Amino acid sequence: MNLLFQHVAITAGVTVRVSVNFMPEQSRVEAGRWFWVYHIRLENNREDTVQLRTRHWRITDSRGMVNVVDGEGVVGETPILAPGQTHDYVSGCELTTNYGAMEGHFTFAQSDGTLFEVAIPFFPLSAPAETI
After folding, report:
1. Are the CB atoms for 56 and 114 separated by under 8 Å?
2. pLDDT digits (tens, 9 = 90+) for 11-31
């Protein structure tokens, strides 16, 4: 799968790449609902194996309303990444405005149990002007 990852952050040898797309067919603009899908690729460029444990999202809409989402793993998984391995997943976000943004961090564990945070790059959620 060849994707254009528009947003990238590297922390402690783990790369997080994000591609985001507005989904008009899943949005209900007349009801004030806009929907985006985002694809995340995690890359372990470290020399040790790591496991994703938790996620922390800060989702902001164009009115300045902030929704914080914390949880275990990603889409029901806590992937283990050996050196050089990647893990991809897809999820979505619905807003009540046509513009917003997401950012946050993942918490990973090293093989000795030590936890460390990996930044998720800031990325905008922007609907085309004709959907306003």
Report:
1. no
2. 999 999 999 999 999 999 999
Give the sheet arrangement for strand 34-44, strand by strand: 7-11, 14-22, 34-44, 86-95
Judge whether 2 lies within some domain.
no
Q: Please tell me what DSSP assigns to residue 99.
A: E
Please give the model's pTM, rounded to 2 decimal places.
0.93
Q: How many residues does the chain have?
A: 132
Measured from the Cβ of residue 109, the count of other Cβ atoms closer than 10 Å reads 17
The answer to whether the beta carbons of residues 38 and 4 sit under 8 Å apart is no
Angle CA 86–79–50, to nearest 5: 75
Q: Residue 69: give its domain's CATH number.
A: 2.60.40.1470
